[in-house]
Amino acid sequence: MYGVLNVYLLNRFVGRFSHESVGDIYAFQYDPEYLANPAEGALSHSLPLQSDVFESEAAYGYFANLLPPAYIRKKLEKCVHISAGNVFGFLRALGGDCAGAVALYREGVRPNPPEKEILRPLEESEAVRILKSLRIRPLYADGETGYRYSGAGAQDKLIARVAEGKVILPLYGTPSTHIVKPATGDFQNSVENECFCQKLAARLGLNSSECEILVLEGDRYFVSKRYDRAMSDGRVARLHQEDFCQMLSIDPEQKYEEQGGPSAAMCMETLRDVKASPQDQIAFIDALVYNFLVGNADAHGKNYSVLYHGGRASFSPLYDVVSTAVYPQLSRAMAMSIGGVSRIDDIQRECFSRMAEEFQMSPKLVLSRLDEMARRIMPVAQNLADELSLTFPSPVYQAIIDVIAAHASQVASGRN
Length: 416
Fold this sequence. Notes:
It is a single chain. The chain is an alpha+beta fold. It is built from twelve helices and 17 strands. The chain has a six-stranded antiparallel sheet with strand order 5-7-6-8-10-9. A hairpin with a 2-residue loop joins strand 6 and strand 7. It is globular, with a radius of gyration of 21 Å.
C-alpha cells in the first residue's frame, strides 16, 4: 500500500510526504513550482531545497518529530484505530495543525484560507470534561469532527485557544494559539512548577514563552501561549519553526543525548549552520545554564527549537521548562550533558568551561553568563514565589528555590 499527504508551509503547498508499507519506506519531495519560487525557504534544515527525493532517514526524521512519542500513540490506538508505529497514519489523522507552520492534508483537501477561522468556544464544564479525558485520549484525538491537531511531548495537553478565561476549540485547520496542560497525576504541583520555571526565566531576562494558570471548576491548568503564532492583519498567523531533532534528522524516540540524540555541541554547531546571530548563540548558553540551575534534567533535543522569520533563523523562546529535580523518582541524568558530565549532582564549574571549549568559545564568556545568572536568580525566584503564592499557593516554589540554591553552590566561583 502507498499513501501520500500534501505538505503545506504557511498555507502554501510545498511538496508531498509519502509512505510505502512494503519495506516501511518514507519519502518527501518538494513540488517543482515551490522550488521555482521558494519564498518561505526550506521545510527543514535537514530537508534543504532540492528536486531529488528525500528518503526514509531524512523524511522520517523530520515528520515523525511532529507527533507525540510512541507510548502516547500507543494510548491512542483504540481511539483512532491506528497502530502506534504507523507514523504516516497518525500524521494523516492529526496533522492539520502541527508545531510551527506545517500542515498535512490528503490529496484533494486544502487548508482553509487564513481569513476563514472556525472556532467553537467551550462551556467551562465541557472544557473540563475534555481536559480530564486527555489521559485516555491524548490530544483529544478524534474527539470532534474537524479537530486535527498534533503536538510533540509526553505531557497530556489540549491544543486550543484561550481568551478571557475560556477554552476555545479551533477547527478545520484554524490556527491554535495556546497549549493547555492539566496537572500530571504522578508529579504533584506540576502546573505550578512549570508556571514558576517559565515565569522565572522571563523575570531573569531570558526569552520565555508567556504562560498563566487557568482555574476551571476549582482545578488549576497550565496555559502556555504558543511562541510560534503571531498576529498579522488582525488574524492569527503561524510562524515556521523546528526543533533540533528535526534539524538533525534524529528519531524522536532517541531525543536524549545518551541515546544518540543531540548534544549541546551539536545544537550550537547547528545554530551556526543556520546563521543564527551571536546573540542567539548566547541565548542558547543561557538556556543551558538556566535549566541546570532550576534542575530541569529533561531539556532534550525536542525542547530547544529555532524560529524562522523571513529566512532568518533565531533561537526560540524557552518552553517545557520544569524542575524535574524536585521529583525524586525522576532521573538525575541531564538530557544533554554539560562538559561531558550528565548527572546533575556532579556538574561542577569546570564542566561549563569544557562546554565552552566544545562550543569553540571562550570559557571566560560562558562562566560570566553562569556567574551572572547564579548571582541574580535567588532574590528574583523568592520574589516570584511570594507573588504567585498570593493566588496559587504551592510548596513546589520553595522546593525549586532549594534546588536553585544547591546548584548555584555547586558551580560557585572559588568553591573547593
